[in-house]
Amino acid sequence: MEKVKRNPITGIGRWFRSTMSELKKVVWPSFSKVRQNTLIVLVYILIVGAIIWALDYAFGWIMRLVLGN
Question: Mean pLDDT score of the chain, rounded to an integer?
Answer without folding.
Answer: 92
